[in-house]
Amino acid sequence: MEFFWTALVLGFAGSAHCIGMCGPIAVALPGNRQFMGTYLAGRVLYNIGRSVTYALMGGVLGFLGLGVWLVGYQQSLSVVTGAGIILVTLYTWNRSWTIDNKLFSGASRRFHNMMKPLMQVGTGQGMLMIGILNGFLPCGLVYVALAAAMTTGGILDGMLYMALFGLGTAPVMFLMAVSPGLLTGKGYYLLQKAIPWLALLVGILLVLRGLSLGIPYISPDLAPGPGSGH
């Protein structure tokens, strides 16, 4: 379980990326501030919906990783995945996730069309569904988290990793939905700058885990078998 803390940290520090990609959706969420309890509950449901989607995707990637673990290549999977994250991060460092933005532009239009009826209704179920749909939008940060989730080697572990990732993004996205003016200035700038460094950290930790150097919490011995959660 020592690796799972990276999901929370990756989600929280990566929230600056979420502001740029999903912030307009969060700001546009329907609701009447005169009924503050319902208004806030809707935004909570929106974030729960996003986390549900992340968890389901984590389960799928965890299942794929489980197959690799069963045939005894868990260490190789961790090293290759970590190296891939490092290379992609270095390549996109000063490119502002250009590949991600190209994918997002087309997918965003389609998802916005699907969300329009839900935006007009503004019910609790609608807010939850908006969050669920939002979770499927292409996002480089989510891909990094999913790659890490795959190395957990289990369906439940993969789901847990991505649920924690979603939980990490929730505070900033909730504030964005309630009061977007709070998330400006130096704090946002620092979070934005932290994203590639954090992606590198996750990649390095995955490589070290795969090397199985016997270092507690950093490179533990990966015992054969699925779902160990190391």
Structural notes for this entry:
This protein is an all-alpha fold and 230 residues long. The protein has one domain (5-211). 75% of the residues lie in helices and 0% in strands. The chain contains nine helices and no strands. The protein has helices spanning 5-13, 15-28, 36-70, 74-92, 98-121, 124-134, 140-150, 155-178, 186-211. Helix 1 packs parallel to helix 8, helix 1 packs antiparallel against helix 9 (186-211) and helix 4 (74-92) runs antiparallel to helix 9. It is globular and about 55 Å long.
Contiguous runs where pLDDT drops below 50 for at least 5 residues: 225-230
Outline the biggest β-sheet. Answer: none
Indicate the overall shape. globular
State which percent range the strand residues make up. Answer: under 5%
List the keywords.
230 residues, globular
SSE topology sketch:
Blueprint: H1 5-13, H2 15-28, H3 36-70, H4 74-92, H5 98-121, H6 124-134, H7 140-150, H8 155-178, H9 186-211
Helix pairs in contact: 1-8, 1-9, 2-8, 3-6, 3-7, 3-8, 4-9, 5-6, 7-8
How is this structure best summarized?
The protein is mostly helical and 230 residues long. Helix content is 75%, strand content 0%.
